[in-house]
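Trying the structure run again after the queue cleared.
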Amino acid sequence: MQDSLISQLRETAAFIQKNYSQRPQVGIVLGSGLGNLSSEIEIEKEVPYKDIPHFPVSTVAGHIGKLVFGKLGGKMVMAMSGRFHYYEGYSLQQVIFPIRLMKLLGIEALLISNAAGGMNRSFKVGDLMAIVDHISLFVPNPLVGKNIDELGTRFPDMSEPYNKQLVAKAKSIAANLGINLKEGIYAGVTGPTFETRAEYKLLHIAGADAVGMSTVQEVIAAAHAGMKVFAMSVITDIGIREEENTITHEEVLQAAADAEPKLTAIFKGLIAEL
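Done. Tokens:
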């Protein structure tokens, strides 16, 4: 199983290198409603997921489903326009396959975005939050099973899954742009249901400022592979509030789209400084 996974990764990497000769320096994962960042890239090559060997295909509204190669902030980048979620029915190995592919292609820095529900009472819809740590106890760990030594150690350290230097740089860039970039802890859950009121309260008591259905498994895979990670959440809804409220995916996408120009500006500035 693990031998076949490595073989698949190598075959996929060879396919990418055959279609795009440049070596990407930075990997980018674009979350729900945040795919338009790819329009800022000086695109040199686009490859639909359906054309890539062993690659899953995104099924969620707001996720375009292609790899984008080109320049952003003066660096060669590889962007995932559409990610894979556990709740779509993908295996954990499929969810983290693109992250491991990035490592095989030589990428050392990974930037991730997501749409998240806010639980910190000081947050409001449209805020941006730099993730400084996460709680992944509510989702299965993607490293369960025989370790692949070529990808990383059996017991990877998770004391700094989000690179502190990148967080500091992002805060400085945001301040110069006049953007109020929050910091916080992200809780990962499986979805696809939005959280109950009691679950929001539990996650907040556990120490989380925001909650979402992605990111933590990708970050675990990146940490396993020794990659530097910066991740940012767009607060697209507020989970803890007194009045009666419901949350729809359409509202999440709209809030993400409204906040996207600020996220794009920070990502571009950060990539330029890598």
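The domain at 2-273 is CATH 3.40.50.1580 (Rossmann fold). Worth checking whether this holds up in the mutant runs.
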